[in-house]
Amino acid sequence: MILVAAAARGVPPALIEQLADGGRMVIPVSVGPDQPQDLRVYVRRGSEVSYRSMFPVLFVPLRTG
After folding, report:
1. Cα 53 to chain center, whole Å?
2. In the prediction, which pLDDT does 58 show?
3. By the 8 A CB rule, do 29 and 4 touch?
4. Average pLDDT of the segment spanning 15-34
5. For 32, which DSSP code?
């Protein structure tokens, strides 16, 4: 399981690559300025990765680089 405790503008591809088959990732994703983030659960099944939205949240921004 991957748990991200900061909001990303999009899901970093490196995190998707690290997701094991049958694994889950919980991450808050920014959907737009001045809007709550969307808490999402991503699941990998083979080469397919899907997600479901859980509920709006408010986390600090994810810093990269």
Report:
1. 10
2. 94
3. no
4. 94
5. S
Domain regions of the chain by residue span: 2-57
CA quadruple 47, 21, 39, 6: dihedral, nearest 10: -100
Which is it for strands 24-29 and 37-45: parallel, antiparallel or unpaired?
Answer: antiparallel
Which amino acid is located at 13 in the chain? P
Nearest to 41 by CA among 20, 25, 59: 25
Query: CA triplet 31, 8, 10: central angle to 5 degrees?
Result: 65
Q: Six-digit token pair at 34?
A: 């001045």
pLDDT, tens digit, for every residue of 34-58?
Answer: 889 999 999 999 999 999 999 999 9
